[in-house]
Write a structure and sequence with these properties.
92 residues, mainly beta, Lipocalin, 5-stranded antiparallel beta sheet, 64% strand, elongated
């Protein structure tokens, strides 16, 4: 799994990150949205900023198409996947 951001936009404490997600040789565009926290001063007097991001994608668009029917209908695995990223940046 690889993610490369192509666009970042901030509006107050909200952040939107658009980028390319690559899984199993398939690449597609995904949008992550979330919040910015900080800056705060942590251990060693280092200033830190945190990001919490989430986004969804259809796993079948990335070659992840295995599934199994359930005895009473439906399938074992849904197509929509939610991913999250919790990042901390330290000012150097």
């Amino acid at each position: 799994m690889r993610f490369r951001s192509t666009e970042i936009a901030r509006s107050g404490g909200e952040i939107r990150v658009v980028g390319e997600l690559t899984l199993k040789g398939h690449t597609g565009t995904i949008e992550l949205r979330g919040s910015i926290f900080g800056p705060v001063v942590g251990l060693g007097d280092a200033e830190r900023i945190g990001l919490d991001l989430t986004g969804t994608f259809d796993r079948t668009e990335y070659g992840l198409d295995w599934n199994a029917p359930l005895p009473k209908g439906g399938f074992a695995v849904g197509d929509e996947v939610t991913i999250g990223a919790h990042l901390a940046y330290v000012r150097g």
